[in-house]
Specification:
TIM Barrel, Ig-like_fold, 740 residues, GH, 31% helix, six-stranded mixed β-sheet, alpha/beta, glycosidase, binds 1-deoxynojirimycin, Immunoglobulin-like, EC 3.2.1.21, beta-glucosidase activity, globular
């Protein structure tokens, strides 16, 4: 079960590989120590995600040969100017690598990554990354700091919008596809960019969901929950990894030898580039694990971290550290070799300007094809949380009231991390419905930040009361999730609850459309609002994609990649939890317990243990049944494959898409095992009345975990295969035994 890491060099055809290796070694032998250290120094050109650090002027630094890469370059003109300085005017003439956070689209903005993961469709993730790479590479970007692969179970953390949710397996499959999409087959092609798996590792476990907060993880949780998506990226050949800001075992990830040198480089075999996060080397001082920048630089280079994003620690300290005999020069050489290999793989030595073609840029951005791809992904990312009485899709021909500032807010549709996204490119829900629904009336009802004035409320109630149905857009502003956007309360901000309740009171059927970057705690809405469609921040094609679902042009096929809590007090709440010694699965939670057998259980007095909407949940406009689930054997050995056949039938009267979900449960292990774990899934499109059989092959690798012997192994014994519509909606359970 070793991770099959594919290095950048392994991905090159033999001849190019030899050329790159030779070029890199020649350069290394020619560079002075100062120049080598300069390569490891990354500076910021424009937009900053933290205090600007260090005092080096970017232009001067590039000219002096003291900079190896630059992030956040504004445009092609600036990119070309920097590259000219590096190649034509610096002493060594080594081209720069230019980096940007291209997270969910470059100019054509796609749904936020959490939304995209709700498609449960790796092809969609690959497609959006492919389009993003095509546009970014045409805009002078060589290197994207994506994908974020942080597994997180905390809806308070703003960065859950950036990754693929709470589950290691779904995250791994989606992240693997994103790397494929960004990097393609040839990094030197003019439509691919270097990807970066981040944030290594465990950042998603920030305590209390507070950004940049402490992380305290067991090794087992690290390996079983947080590591799998990174392993998937390494297998897909990701060329760089970014250190997390967080601690592991009380040592910051950037200087953590156990994490970087031993686990990532040693055990997982990753020998390409590791870049710090923004000033994360400098933050060793704040963490109190280094007394000064010199000590921080020493610790980070020794841990195996190569490139210093903006802290200046390497630039100011590494030369002295080597000259004083504290740091071995071979460590510097190794890090520089990795960066130069990246430059070679990107084809920058042959043509440092190959990404700077204005004409290509004008042809490649926001094309019709790209918009169409954005619409496809946005269609598949929506999750129908509830649909009482089949309110959706909306009937033809009725009067529809559309309410909510977000329905008309182009900028919010882009979400956080929007690269070159432009609100002017967005088609809003209001614009689309105005075109496609004849009897549409729009009324604002609330501002995009959720504030509702008396006048707005009155006008909205009046309009909704006289309509046949209402669509109410509620949620967060885009800046309420993303980096540095933790929220302690994850209900709808402002007065949106009061607005929705007043509109439901009118008696007109109300469908709420949610725009948000995280799971929300909306139990009151789940109780009172007949239909709720989760649209996340859907990108430039927000309006058309949502209208396609609201009007029944397509079936809502998204499923939740992260549980929605009943209330913040349940967090972290996630499906693949461990059992406790006092499970409360069947407890009656309506009455305060008096029977000691009911009272002394792992439960709350005031809310259920279960989330409001579980991982994997999502309704369709039709219904599905699993008519047959079977295993091809009752036993398997570690070398055998077990086949799970699932026959799924569309039992409704419309075409639709079911996401067949296969979970495993290992009832007894040497360490406590989760109640279930996702191991396979597949999207199945079925016409009304049609059925299909899907087969999934399981091997011992699927049964393996980090055992009490501190190794990955599958332990013999009984296992359950659970096939379901969602983690809380298991339709069939079959058992088999792993025998020696
Ligand atoms: C800090 C963020 O944590 C990281 O994800 C991002 O890539 C860098 N800033 C650069 O913008």
């Amino acid at each position: 079960m070793e991770t099959q890491t594919r290095s950048l060099l392994d991905q090159l055809p033999p001849e190019r590989r030899a050329e790159v290796e030779e070029r890199v070694e020649t350069l290394l032998s020619e560079l002075t120590l100062e120049q080598k250290v300069g390569q490891l120094n990354q500076l910021n050109a424009d937009f900053a995600t933290g205090t600007a650090v260090g005092d080096m002027d970017v232009e001067q630094g590039v000219l002096d040969g003291d900079v190896g890469s630059v992030l956040n370059v504004a445009d092609l003109e600036e990119a070309r100017a920097f590259q000219e300085l590096a190649v034509e005017e610096s002493d060594h003439g080594i081209p720069l690598v230019l980096a940007l956070d291209v997270i969910h689209g470059h100019r054509t903005i796609f749904p936020i990554p959490l939304g995209e993961a709700a498609s449960w469709n790796p092809e969609m993730a690959e497609l959006s990354a492919r389009v993003a790479a095509t546009e970014a590479a045409a805009s002078g970007v060589h290197w994207t700091f994506a994908p974020s692969v942080d597994v997180s179970r905390d809806a308070r953390w703003g960065r859950v919008m950036e990754a693929a949710g709470e589950d290691p397996y779904l995250s791994a499959e989606i992240s693997r596809a994103r790397v494929r999409g960004f990097q393609g087959e040839d990094l030197a092609a003019d439509d691919t960019v270097l990807a970066c798996a981040k944030h290594y590792v465990g950042y998603g476990a920030s305590e209390a969901g507070r950004e940049y907060n402490t992380v305290d993880l067991s090794e087992t949780a690290l390996r079983e929950v947080h590591l799998p998506p990174f392993e998937a990226c390494l297998e897909a050949g990701v060329g760089s990894v970014m250190n997390a800001f967080s601690l592991y075992d009380r040592v910051p990830a950037s200087s953590n030898e156990e994490l970087v040198r031993e686990l990532l480089r040693g055990e997982l075999g990753f020998d390409d580039l590791v870049v710090s996060d923004w000033n994360s080397f400098g933050e060793l001082l704040e963490h109190g694990v280094a007394g000064d920048l010199r000590d921080a630089a020493r610790a980070c280079i020794e841990a195996g971290s190569d490139v210093d994003m903006v802290s200046g620690a390497y630039a100011t300290e590494l030369v002295d550290l080597v000259e004083d005999g504290v740091v071995d020069e071979s460590l510097v050489d190794r890090a520089v070799r990795r960066l130069l290999t990246v430059k070679g793989a990107l084809g920058l030595f042959e043509d440092p300007y190959r990404y700077f073609d204005e004409e290509r840029r004008s042809r490649r951005l926001l094309t019709d094809d790209h918009r169409e791809a954005a619409r496809d992904v946005a269609r598949e990312s929506q999750v129908l949380l509830k649909n009482e009485g089949g309110l959706l899709p909306l009937d033809d021909g009725g009067d529809v009231a559309l309410v909510g500032g977000l329905a008309d807010s182009a900028t919010d549709m882009l979400g956080a991390w929007r690269a070159e996204g432009d609100p002017d490119d967005v088609t809003t829900l209001r614009a689309t419905l105005a075109d496609r629904v004849e009897g549409l009336t729009y009324v604002e009802g609330c501002d995009r930040d959720g504030a509702v004035s008396d006048e707005q409320l009155e006008a909205a109630v009046e309009t909704v009361a006289s309509a046949d149905a209402a669509v109410v857009a509620v949620g967060e502003r885009y800046s309420q999730s993303g980096e540095a956007a933790s929220r302690a309360h994850v209900d709808l901000p402002g007065d949106q609850r009061a607005l929705l309740e007043a509109l439901v009171e009118t008696g007109t059927p109300v469908a709420a459309v949610l725009f948000n970057g995280r799971p929300l705690a909306i139990d009151w809405a789940a109780e009172r609002v007949p239909a709720i469609l989760e649209a996340w921040f859907p990108g430039v094609e927000a309006g058309p994609a949502i209208a396609d679902v609201l009007l029944g042009e397509c079936d809502p096929s998204g499923r939740l990649p992260m549980s929605f809590p009943v209330t913040e007090g349940q967090i972290p709440v996630y499906y693949n939890r461990l059992r406790t010694g006092r499970p409360a699965e069947d407890a009656d939670l309506t009455e305060p317990p008096s029977d000691p057998g009911e009272k002394y259980l792992s439960r709350y007095l005031d809310v259920p243990n279960e989330p409001l909407y579980a991982f994997g949940h999502g309704e369709s406009y039709t219904t599905f049944a699993y008519t047959d689930v079977s295993l091809d054997a009752a036993t398997m050995t570690a070398d055998e494959t077990l086949s799970v056949d699932v026959t799924v039938e569309n039992t409704g009267d419309r075409a639709g898409t079911e996401v067949v979900q296969v979970y495993l449960r290992d009832p007894v292990g040497s360490r406590a095992r989760p109640v279930r774990e996702l191991v396979r899934f597949e999207n199945v499109d079925l016409d009304a009345g049609a059925s299909a059989t899907v087969s999934f092959d399981l091997t011992a690798a699927d049964l393996a975990f980090w055992t009490a012997d501190d190794e990955y192994a599958a332990e013999p014994g009984e296992f359950e295969v659970q096939v379901g519509h969602a983690a809380d909606d298991i339709a069939a359970v079959e058992t088999f035994e792993l025998v020696e």
